[in-house]
Amino acid sequence: MTALLLEERGRRGVRLAFADRGPGIADVDLALTDGWTSGTGMGLGLSGSKRLVDDFVLDTTPGAGTTVTVTKWGR
Ligand SMILES: Nc1ncnc2c1ncn2[C@@H]1O[C@H](COP(=O)(O)OP(=O)(O)OP(=O)(O)O)[C@@H](O)[C@H]1O
Ligand SMILES: [Mg+2]
Questions:
Q1: Closest-lying ligand to the alpha carbon of 36?
Q2: Is the CB of residue 38 below 6 angstroms from any atom belonging to ligand 1?
Q3: Which domains does the chain have, with CATH numbers?
Q4: CA of 9 relative to ligand 1 center, distance in Å
Q5: Do residues 55 and 34 touch, judged by C-beta distance below 8 A?
Q6: Does ligand 1 have an atom closer than 6 angstroms to the CB of 42?
Q7: Quick one: pLDDT band at residue 9, thresholds 50, 70, 90?
Q8: pLDDT (tens digit, 9 = 90+) per residue, 27-46?
Q9: Which ligand is nearest to the CA of 22?
């Protein structure tokens, strides 16, 4: 995980990037569907994270890994 503090036009924010070298995600739209899980989770990790932040980028290569980068600005 990498963390970055941001300051832009008087606003402060934080950017977090989570990277793994796992199986990757073949169908990103499906993975982002509320309640959909390939395992025993709630299927809310990705979609819920996306809702909570201001910017959400999912970069994945099947067979190689996944990086999720989220940015949240202060109020
Ligand atoms: N880093 C990842 N690498 C590979 N597949 C992933 C990854 N993150 C999510 N997925 C796939 O997308 C699906 C949905 O992910 P999501 O995080 O929304 O739910 P979950 O992990 O199944 O449950 P939880 O609600 O506990 O997070 C997962 O079930 C899995 O198939
Ligand atoms: Mg999850």
A1: 1
A2: yes
A3: 2-73 (3.30.565.10)
A4: 35
A5: no
A6: yes
A7: very high
A8: 999 999 999 999 999 999 99
A9: 1
